[in-house]
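Summary for the steering committee. The consortium agreed at its last meeting that each partner would contribute one worked example illustrating the joint modelling workflow. Our contribution is presented below. We chose a case with several input lines so that the handling of multiple components could be demonstrated. No manual editing was applied between input and output; the record is shown as generated.
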Amino acid sequence: MVRKPNNFTIEVKNLGMQYGDNQVLKDVNFHARQGEVLVLLGPNGAGKTTTIEILEGFRKASTGSVAVLDINPEKGDEAWRARLGVVLQSWRDHSKWYVRELLQHIGKYYVPYSTESHKRPYDTDEILHIVGLAEHAHKKLGELSGGQRRRMDVAIGLIGNPEVLFLDEPTVGFDPIARQEFHDVIHRLSDLEKTTVLLTTHDLQEAEKLADRIIILAGGKIIANGTAGELAQEIEGRTEVRWQQNGELMVHSTKDATAFTRDLLRQHESGISDLQIHGTTLEETYTGLIQKYEEKKEAK
Amino acid sequence: MNVSSNAVKLGFERGWIDFKRFVSSPGDIIPILLIAALSLGFLWYQRDYQVNGISLALVTLPSIIGMIVAFSGFSTISSLLTSEQEDGTLLRAKTIPQGIKGYFISRLVFVALTTSIMLIGMLPALFFVDGVSIDFSQGVELAGVLILGFIATVTWGAIVGSLVKSAKDASALMFPTFLIIGISGIFYPITALWGWVQAVAQIFPVYWLGLGARSIILPGQAAANEIAKSWRTPEMLAILAIWAIVGLAVAPKVLSRMTRRATGSKMTVDSEHAKQYQPHQ
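What follows is the complete predicted structure of the assembly.
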């Protein structure tokens, strides 16, 4: 389907979610374009799953507006649902069904929604091959390992040839090879099929590898939003300068370490020793951001 | 292709596949065969006893048929819905276009097939129970009463299964279910029980299903053994119809509420409770 430029496949504005007194999401804003891979990164309880469930139409937002493929998920009908792929967290259903049998059966639900320009569903064997389950096609789901089970969930998410694919922690239980293969699948979908992908993870490396854009969520708020490069730059700016001043350890975090150090040494002609300058990695920044949020929460 | 008829077709396909797995899984099919074997044994034991010139086994056979329909309709669907809310089957259906429709149709198909299997399991009784003779029109009447009773119980099984949140609560339901069967005149004449117990039994469909099946299979004079010495056919039809109609009106609302509330994060919480009951892995 051809989309107008600047026409977002996912659009979230001022999204808020409240259960009783518990504010789970606060003023969340983001959007995604066709073919974009968006990663929601954050610790457990940050609101990632709630966000994704609102977009899937499984939960009503308390405030704000949300659109997926230009439709409010609360009002999305079955034809809208046919354009989505959904992979939720850890399931253990259909344990007595065979892998290929279940995938083919589910694929048939998408047949009436197939169009000339957008064929649905995918070929069952092609998807099994893509997710690396071809050799397990005739096993029962109950006989699969945790990682294989997860690939089956991903296969079911893909079978309808979705325009938007939601994945909640898709790679939990994957070994490194399976993870790499999964990353290839996601790249292929976004590059060749122009599928918009929104996935959650708490694995920073995964986010860096997959994402066109990373959104860091903590305590129901977006605390960072940008490409991996932009986040890294923002972090690079935050350099830490440490030194001993009259026997006391001093620490200062700054965007321009060179200027700060020049000033520091000009002001104190003596008494400064053990000067160290540390650049921060993306991981440190992420951890730092989360810690800062946790501390704020405890202070309340 | 029509979207809705596609979902109906897939519901039948799913129900049939689930049924094939059920029949070929020893843990599932053996309890069913056991119930059939126990019922047949009970009939065998009764075959030489007579009440008012009618074989006691002949009186019990239609009662057991009624019980099977009521029990299977109610229990199978309620335990399915409870466990499939927990294991993600329902939620999976929700992520698929028309998936919920296909899911509910498949459950009906599955329960109808498993109930039929239990009824087929009773066929050997025809070889040793004296006096079973029904003509075509009686056969149609019997099928009609059983289908009405099936709707009356399967809808309520679905309602209870949607409301019950865990496998543990579902197994707690077994006791009252058996209690109701116990007082419904299946294995023991209801007229021999206290009046208030009779009154309680007559609230539920099990008694009326058994009565309805007896009224069709037994000769007319056997009505003398029943409450009010009558088959009470109008009452039987009316009470089963009330259960069926109210069930049909309420079930879709409860089911759609259950479906709406099913979400991944809720399921993660529920499955914490469920882990100890998990049959596989």
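The beta strands of chain B are 50-51, 54-55. Residues 56-86 of chain B form the longest helix (31 residues).
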